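We store chain and fold; thus.
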Amino acid sequence: MVETIEVETIEPVGEVLRALGVLAVARTIMSYNDDQELIEKVAVLQEYVELSRMFPGRDYGVVLRKAISEVVAEVQWALKCELIMSDVGRNRRNLLKTSRPLAANQGSLFAD
C-alpha cells in the first residue's frame, strides 16, 4: 500500500519536472525563433504545469504528457528547420568558394 502511494506521488512530480525541462528548451528556441505554433503549445504546457502546482491533488498526468509531446514535436521541427537552413548556408558558402575561382578562370579564357 505504501509503495503505491509513493509511485502515485512521484509520477506527477516527474511529469512536471519533465515539462519544466521541455519548457526550458522551448523557450531557448523561442528566443531566436518566432514560431507561433511553438509559442501556443508552450503556453498550453505552461498552463498545465501551473494548474498541477495549484491543485496538486488532481491528476494532470495525461494532459501533461500530451502537451509535452506536442511541444517536443514543435521543438524537433524547429531544430530540423535550423539544421536545414544551416546546411543550405554552408552549401551556399561552399558553392561560392568553388565558383569564384571557376568564374575567374572562365573570364580569362574569354578575354583573349
In short: The chain is about 90% helix and 0% strand.
